[in-house]
């Protein structure tokens, strides 16, 4: 994941913990993809001031992630759900090949839908 994308994701997780000014500048830079010069013009702050603020905000967001770890926890959950989904699919394949119980197959289909819906929540 590129650094800018990583910071943009962290902004989604921790943006409300920033000051309004930090959040606004970071959103303009990371989410709206404006240049430092464009942001400086819009906000009446020097280009250097915008740069310094964005770098400080980036450091704060990285520190939040290091201490709280929401993005890492989310990535771990997604990874676990994907593993569960693969195992469900293998069980379904085995059930079909061995003419397994239709009751078991029905439950596997329900589990697969549940896991798939959980994964969609993280998209």
Automatic annotation (TrEMBL):
Keyword rRNA-binding included in the entry's annotation: no
UniProt keywords, alphabetically: DNA-binding
Q: Does the keyword DNA-binding apply?
A: yes
Instruction: Please give the Gene Ontology molecular function terms for this protein.
Output: DNA binding
SUPFAM superfamilies found in the cross-reference section: Sigma3 and sigma4 domains of RNA polymerase sigma factors (SSF88659)
Against Gene3D superfamilies, the record matches this protein to:
Winged helix-like DNA-binding domain superfamily/Winged helix DNA-binding domain
Annotated signal peptide: none
Matching InterPro entries: RNA_pol_sigma_r3/r4-like, UPF0122, UPF0122_fam_protein, WH-like_DNA-bd_sf
Entry similarity comment: Belongs to the UPF0122 family.
> What does this protein's UniProt record list under function?
Might take part in the signal recognition particle (SRP) pathway. This is inferred from the conservation of its genetic proximity to ftsY/ffh. May be a regulatory protein.
* PANTHER family assigned to the protein according to its UniProt record, in alphabetical order: UPF0122 PROTEIN CBO2450/CLC_2298, UPF0122 PROTEIN YLXM
Instruction: Specify the protein name.
Output: UPF0122 protein H8Z77_00755
Q: Which organism is it from?
A: Clostridium facile
